[in-house]
Design goal:
Distance between the termini: 42 Å
Number of domains: 2
Helix content: 10-25%
CATH topology of the largest domain: Fumarylacetoacetate hydrolase, domain 2
Structural class: alpha+beta
Strand content: 25-35%
Oligomer: single chain
CATH architecture of the largest domain: Alpha-Beta Complex
Length: 288
């Protein structure tokens, strides 16, 4: 199944919807009494609630998706854990070593944004803003001290993440959270695809297009540490709570490393995508 948050004609805030057919979605909150209106509530409801939603959606006619405004697909996660330097080509092009353990940092909730949204930032803060296409993993069942062999049983679903980064700030500070957590710097979506729809998270085509130019074109199979290893590692130090979003790193092709460099400009449009998961578009404005 595919879920999203969209602003419906009768609502002011994004509501959880399920895709019922190509181009049509059903508001989940209207399916039955007590039905969840947000993805986090659906995830916390466990397998029983998801099964009830699946059953109810079969009879739903839905409404056209065209023209509706998206919110973040993952809107209220307990935490967003981002993994850096998880593709050899990307760590090499940035001149950074892929350490013996994953590079992990936290993204701030204000950075979450939806598909086809506009992300803006002041020119005075950065003119070196870069794109990063990434596979997002959404945790379902709580994960603590999970073995890699069991890790995928804790995954609820997958989404697309653009880990937008102010490179000049990244290389001037010892930590990476701020350079990647400007308002709107973590678009995700448009959809969260349930785990049963993805046979192998390490066999997905991942790509990015900036202003019509393909700038990233790779496979998730090129990750240094696969999804299973990341979940096992992260779950050793802390329980991964339901709804946790893990952004699993970006392949090579970053704008910072190109000659000439490609940064997101005023009125740039960037689309990052993963086959079988979705295409996520962000419009850019530079202020001042």
């Amino acid at each position: 199944m595919r879920f999203a948050h969209v602003v419906l004609p009768e609502t002011d805030d994004p509501q959880l919807v399920a895709v019922v057919s190509p181009g049509r979605v059903a508001p989940v909150g209207a399916l039955f009494d007590g039905a969840p209106r947000a993805l986090q509530d659906l995830i916390e409801g466990g397998d029983e609630l998801l099964a009830r939603v699946r059953e109810a959606v079969r009879d739903a006619e839905g409404v056209p998706l065209d023209g509706l405004v998206f919110g973040p697909a993952v809107a209220e996660p307990p935490v967003v854990l981002a993994v850096g330097l998880n593709y050899a080509a990307h760590s090499s092009e940035l001149g950074l070593k892929a350490d013996t353990a994953p590079t992990v940092f936290v993204l701030w909730p204000n950075s979450l944004a939806g598909n086809e949204g506009t992300t803006s930032w002041p020119r005075s803060l950065s003119e070196s803003v870069d794109y990063e296409s990434e596979l997002g993993v959404v945790i379902g069942a709580p994960a603590k001290d999970v073995a890699a062999a069991d890790a995928l049983s804790h995954v609820w679903g997958y989404t697309v993440v653009n880990d937008i980064t102010a490179r000049d700030i990244q290389f001037s500070e010892a930590q990476w959270s701020r350079c990647k957590s400007f308002d709107g710097f973590t678009p995700n979506g448009p959809f969260v695809v349930t785990a049963d729809e993805i046979a192998d998270p390490q066999d997905l085509h991942i790509w990015a297009v900036v202003d019509g130019q393909t700038v990233q074109d790779a496979s998730t199979g090129q990750m240094i540490r696969p999804v299973t290893t990341l979940i096992a590692h992260l779950s050793q130090s802390a329980t991964l709570l339901p709804g946790t979003l893990i952004s699993t790193g970006s392949p090579g092709g970053a704008g910072y490393s190109r000659d000439p460099q490609i940064f997101l400009r005023d009125r740039s449009t960037v689309t990052v995508g993963i086959d079988g998961v979705g295409e996520l578009t962000t419009h850019c404005r530079i202020l001042g």
